[in-house]
Amino acid sequence: MSPAELLAPRSAWFPRPVAPPGGGTGPDPVTAPLRLICFPYAGGTVSTYRDWQHHLGERTAVVPVQPPGRGLRLRETPYDDMEPLAEAVADALTTSQLMVEPYMLFGHSMGALLAYEVACVLRRRGAPAPRHLFVSASRAPHLYGDRSDHTLSDTELREVIRGLGGLGDGDRLGTAYLDRRLPVLRADLRACERYRWEPRPPLDCPMTAFSATGDPIAAPQAVEAWRPYTSGSFLRRHLPGGHFFLNNPPRARLLAHLRAELDDATAVPPPHREPHPAPTPAPSPRKASRQAPWTY
Description:
Elements: H1 3-6, E1 34-39, H2 52-56, E2 60-64, H3 82-94, E3 103-108, H4 110-124, E4 132-136, H5 154-164, H6 170-173, H7 175-194, E5 207-212, H8 220-224, E6 234-239, H9 251-267
Parallel strand pairs: 1-2, 1-3, 3-4, 4-5, 5-6
């Protein structure tokens, strides 16, 4: 049985990447030197990462995650609780042949929180750890869970989405398109708003956190608060743009930073790290300003 055939059962959670410009299908996710597993923001789909393969090179297989309630899984009931969602993603990963080392995790906004929780689940199960965790436009986990935005009316939620540009082409496609996305968006928001961080040892993998100059949701100090969540190296990169900078021109800088990290990872073997006891993250020293009603 070929690697491609082995990957067939993963198609629901990890749909085949869109062919990059110029044709081709990109590297095989099983045999590529590196896998970058990408998690969507609240209400988002794998289309967010549709051309990342083209930008990130042939040595890294871009593997977007498609949770229930969106895309070809539109008829499935979306999760509205972070813990079972993270467990389900971990199940899918460990049965999909994608846990071949090395791999990295990337998540934007809610996707960053989900990527972190998935990494914690995999560690608890004794699975191989990610080589790197990238968190983008997200407050640290202990800063989640104090909003109730999923209770906004449809009209209020539409206006918030339009104001933040969170659904990409949705503004041009009209209200009917937005309405199809509202149920999964509400479920995702509910999952974030119910989330309560439980103290755990920090992850061992290096972490890079991306903040943006005009992001009213994940202010720089709230993104910086991810630092105690790893016992490895931590780097925060500050980019221009708003909360959804990965859908706008600043994403070129984001992709350039990612490409450099990925190229280094496929060129240099991972450093050996001795196990050691590590402190748990302290409570937030500063609360981030929350000026936008849609907080994830």
